Amino acid sequence: MTRRTEDASSPLEVTHHHPDLRVDERALTSTLSLVLEREGRSIGSLSVILTDHETVLELNRRYLQHDYLTDVLSFPLGADDASDVVEGEIYIDLDTAAERHTEFGMSFDEEVRRYAIHGLLHLIGYDDATPKGAEAMERLEEVYLRAAGNAPPL
What we know:
44% of the residues lie in helices and 20% in strands. By secondary structure, it is of the alpha/beta class. It has one domain: Metalloproteases ("zincins"), catalytic domain (Collagenase (Catalytic Domain), 3-Layer(aba) Sandwich), CATH 3.40.390.30.
């Protein structure tokens, strides 16, 4: 089932493509807006697709040549990461969030928002390929979740 939740004129589109799981879309879009504001970025066009293991695995195999599940994938659509305008697609695996959220002491919706923040940070230009980069991204995820009121205190 696919259900688009934002109007056609909105630069931020959330699409449910999962047969069963749903998230609080208002909190998700609010959190992403907060990140964009704090990062000094605006949206050209941003799609967040809420989907399942099968879809994310297929995308990971096809476009990144990775044969494993992951929680979130980001695909930039803009010309370069240095732009103040973010354009891209974020695919979030709701199955992974449902399976793992308690492991991190988070609600399902909070875990989904963490994945969305992570994907957005990649579109902005952050990289977690090194331990230092991964640590910086994790810190930012915590900062933004707290700022949005979506994370337990340390």
